[in-house]
Design brief:
It comes from Tumidithrix elongata BACA0141. The chain is mainly α. It contains four helices and no strands.
């Protein structure tokens, strides 16, 4: 029985996608604009984004375009 666990960034990406669908943010908004929504968790997600080459000035749509969150080991 193989159980695949979603990468934490997939879960984050899905949360952000939900924010876009509910029109709380637009795909053209900058990533820093979701910091207030994520509150205390933002520092963690900001670090994760940085490790994948994102900056808080990137647009949300660039995060949503990622198809695979592969980490080099």
């Amino acid at each position: 029985m193989n159980t695949q666990v979603a990468h934490p960034m997939v879960k984050f990406q899905n949360q952000v996608r939900s924010l876009v669908k509910s029109k709380l943010v637009k795909p053209s908004d900058r990533l820093w604009q979701i910091s207030l929504i994520f509150g205390d968790e933002w520092q963690h997600w900001k670090q994760e984004l940085s490790e994948f080459g994102f900056s808080t000035q990137d647009v949300i749509s660039s995060l949503l375009e990622v198809e695979a969150w592969d980490e080099e080991e």
